[in-house]
């Protein structure tokens, strides 16, 4: 596959189809805060949206070590991980920081351990495009065809746009994941605080809700009253602890 030439307009995938794919990816990943879940949504959406692409996978690395892998088809999931060592299309794309591919794996001398396994699983063509996620994680999105010469220069252009867009979306997912983890740690610390934990227990009993929801009720009250969370908790605990007049 020659990745250096500029493809004729007639060979490119439709602009509307590519735009629809990017729009669907944005809608599907915009609210996620789980990186593995986002990878799974990415490969499924890509496979379903691109004609000529039979399967899609993603390989992610952090400091050279596996940081996530996803496959639109579980049977072919091993093609995207590191079990075949550094000689795979995904690793080539990551290492070289450029798109790599093969029109027909039957005539492909690269990736000697990976290619026979891919062909045995029905893969005949591949495009891997590098994806820059953040300063810790990089990856590659892998497009697989079940027929030789099915992946065109149009797929190459789409893969480049897809890699750029996916990198931005996945970076946002990782940021939300980090923020959610920090918020969870803060919540755990608050729930361990005596008076706040007590107040949360009161709300849980009154409303029959989980601790996280009860803590949100306290936060909402503190925001509405413009007073510290601890003060709201103290008032609530004081109120329910006050003996009732007979």
UniProtKB/TrEMBL annotation:
ANTAR domain location: 176-237
Signal peptide: none
UniProt keywords, alphabetically: Transcription, Transcription regulation
PROSITE patterns: ANTAR (PS50921)
Keyword Calcium: no
Keyword Oxidoreductase annotated: no
GO molecular function: RNA binding
Matches recorded under Pfam families: ANTAR, GAF_2
Domain of life (superkingdom): Bacteria
Protein name (record): Antitermination regulator
Species of origin: Micromonospora craterilacus
């Amino acid at each position: 596959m020659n990745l250096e030439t500029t493809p004729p307009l007639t060979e490119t995938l439709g602009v509307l189809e590519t735009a629809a794919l990017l729009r669907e990816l944005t809608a599907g990943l915009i609210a996620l805060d789980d990186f593995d879940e986002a990878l799974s949504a990415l490969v499924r959406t890509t496979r379903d949206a691109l004609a000529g692409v039979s399967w899609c996978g993603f390989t992610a690395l952090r400091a050279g070590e596996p940081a996530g892998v996803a496959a639109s088809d579980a049977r072919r999931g091993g093609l995207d991980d590191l079990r075949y060592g550094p000689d795979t299309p995904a690793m080539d794309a990551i290492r070289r920081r450029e798109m790599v591919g093969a029109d027909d794996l039957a005539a492909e001398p690269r990736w000697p351990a990976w290619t026979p396994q891919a062909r045995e699983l029905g893969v005949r063509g591949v495009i891997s495009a590098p994806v820059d996620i953040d300063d810790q994680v990089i990856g590659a999105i892998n497009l697989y065809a079940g027929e030789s010469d099915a992946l065109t220069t149009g797929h190459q252009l789409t893969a480049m746009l897809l890699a750029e867009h996916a990198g931005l979306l996945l970076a946002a997912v990782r940021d939300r994941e980090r923020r959610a983890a920090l918020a969870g740690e803060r919540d755990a610390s608050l729930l361990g605080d005596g008076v706040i934990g007590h107040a949360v227990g009161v709300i849980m009993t009154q409303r029959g809700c989980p601790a996280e929801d009860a803590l949100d009720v306290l936060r909402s009250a503190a925001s509405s009253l413009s007073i510290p969370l601890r003060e709201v908790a103290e008032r609530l605990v004081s109120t329910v602890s006050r003996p009732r007049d007979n």
